C-alpha cells in the first residue's frame, strides 16, 4: 500500500511540473514570412478642408489653446489637413499638434508647422482613425487673434498593416473592377499610421475600393 501511494504521489508531482497547454490565437511568423492582405473601403467620403473642425477660433490670446470637440471624425483612417482662415495676418510662425489614434487604436500625434501670415493648408501624412485634440502652441497668433483654423481630411487612406516597399501591392479595385492606374503608396516598415494608399478613382461618397497588398506583420 505504501509503495502504491509513493508511485501515485510521484505521478501527481510529474503532472503539476508541466504547465497546462494553452491555445494561442495569433498569426505565426517565420523570420522572412509575409502575407497577402485584402482591405476594403466602402463609400469613401470626399476629401475636404473642414470635415473635422470648421473655422475654429484657435488661440484667442498668446497662451496655448486646445480644441477637443469636433464636427465629425474621419470615416476611415486617413490623413489630415489644417487651413488657416479669417484674419490670417494674425497667424504667427508656430506648430499645431494633432493627437488621436491610428487604425490599431494606438495613440499617435502629428505636428503641422505654419509660417507667419500663412493662409494655405498644411497637409499631413499620418492616417488618423480618430482625432482627440488639436493644440496650438503659445504665441501662435498675435494682433487681434482673429485667425480661424479648419481641419479636414485628405485622400491618403490608412492601411491596416505595414509594407516594406511601396511596390508591395498587387492591384486595386474600384466598384469591383480593376483600376488601370495603381494607387499612390506611401509606406513605413514599422509605423502602421504611415502606410497609406491614394486611389486613382474618385472618392465622392459612393465608390467602393479594395486593395490587395503584401504586409510585413508590423505591430
Number of domains: 2
Total beta-strand segments = 14
How far apart lie the N and C ends? 58 Å
Tally the helices: 1
Structural class: mainly beta
Ranges with pLDDT <50 over ≥5 residues? none
SSE order, as H and E?
HEEEEEEEEEEEEEE
Oligomer: single chain
Beta-sheet strand percentage?
Answer: 35-45%
Task: State the helical fraction.
Answer: under 10%
Morphology: elongated
Largest sheet: 6 strands, antiparallel
Overall average residue pLDDT: 90
Question: Could you walk me through the main structural features you see in this protein, from its secondary elements to its overall organization?
Answer:
- This protein is mainly β and 219 residues long.
- It has two domains: 33-43 and 158-215, no CATH class; 48-155.
- 7% of the residues lie in helices and 39% in strands.
- The protein has one helix and 14 strands.
- The chain has one helix at 2-16; strands spanning 35-41, 48-56, 65-67, 78-86, 94-101, 107-114, 122-123, 130-136, 147-158, 169-174, 177-178, 184-186, 196-198, 209-215.
- The strands form three sheets. Strands 2, 4, 7, 9, 12 and 13 form a six-stranded antiparallel beta sheet that branches. A four-stranded antiparallel beta sheet has the order 1-14-10-11, with no helix packed on it. Strands 3-8-5-6 form a four-stranded antiparallel beta sheet, with no helix packed on it.
- The longest helix is centred in the first third of the chain and has 15 residues, at 2-16.
- It is elongated and about 55 Å long.
- The termini are far apart.
- The model has no long low-confidence stretch (mean pLDDT 90).
Amino acid at each position: 500500500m505504501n509503495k502504491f501511494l509513493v508511485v501515485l504521489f510521484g505521478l501527481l508531482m510529474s503532472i503539476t511540473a508541466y504547465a497546462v497547454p494553452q491555445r494561442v490565437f495569433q498569426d505565426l511568423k517565420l523570420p522572412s514570412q509575409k502575407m497577402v492582405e485584402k482591405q476594403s473601403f466602402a463609400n469613401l467620403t470626399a476629401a475636404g478642408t473642414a470635415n473635422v473642425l470648421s473655422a475654429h477660433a484657435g488661440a484667442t490670446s498668446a497662451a496655448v489653446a486646445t480644441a477637443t470637440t469636433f464636427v465629425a471624425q474621419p470615416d476611415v483612417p486617413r490623413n489630415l489637413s489644417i487651413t488657416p482662415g479669417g484674419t490670417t495676418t494674425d497667424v504667427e510662425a508656430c506648430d499645431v499638434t494633432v493627437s488621436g489614434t491610428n487604425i490599431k487604436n494606438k495613440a499617435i500625434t502629428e505636428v503641422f508647422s505654419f509660417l507667419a501670415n500663412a493662409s494655405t493648408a498644411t497637409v499631413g501624412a499620418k492616417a488618423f482613425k480618430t482625432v482627440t485634440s488639436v493644440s496650438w502652441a503659445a504665441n501662435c497668433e498675435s494682433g487681434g487673434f482673429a485667425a480661424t483654423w479648419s481641419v479636414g481630411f485628405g485622400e491618403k487612406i490608412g492601411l491596416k498593416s505595414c509594407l516594406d516597399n511601396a511596390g508591395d501591392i498587387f492591384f486595386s479595385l474600384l466598384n469591383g473592377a480593376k483600376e488601370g492606374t495603381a494607387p499612390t503608396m506611401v509606406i513605413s516598415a514599422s509605423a502602421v499610421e504611415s502606410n497609406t494608399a491614394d486611389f486613382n478613382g474618385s472618392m465622392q461618397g459612393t465608390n467602393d475600393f479594395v486593395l490587395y497588398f503584401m504586409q510585413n506583420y508590423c505591430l
